[in-house]
Design a protein that fits this description.
Blueprint: E1 7-8, E2 17-18, E3 23-24, E4 35-36, E5 41-42, E6 51-52, E7 57-58, E8 67-68
Antiparallel strand pairs: 1-2, 3-4, 5-6, 7-8
Length: 71
């Protein structure tokens, strides 16, 4: 069975589990596993996409939030 966006089929594909913060899952990507967000983006739990950091913010891969650049 296919899981909803933001969820993964897990190890045994018997249930859908939410993706952890810093990861995402598209229902249409064909991936059953959550993928890491790229640097410069972030996500909360059960996300279907990663959100770009606002201007003046940054993040590493797999981030659940963005940090502010120091002036």
């Amino acid at each position: 069975s296919q899981c909803a966006p933001g969820y993964s089929s897990g190890s045994f594909a018997s249930e859908c589990i939410p993706c952890s913060p810093g990861t995402y899952s598209h229902a249409t990507s064909g991936h059953h596993a959550c993928q890491l967000c790229l640097a410069g983006t972030f996500s909360q739990a059960a996300s279907s996409t990663c959100t770009p950091c606002p201007n003046g913010g940054f993040s590493g891969p797999g981030a659940s939030s963005c940090d502010s650049c120091s002036p």
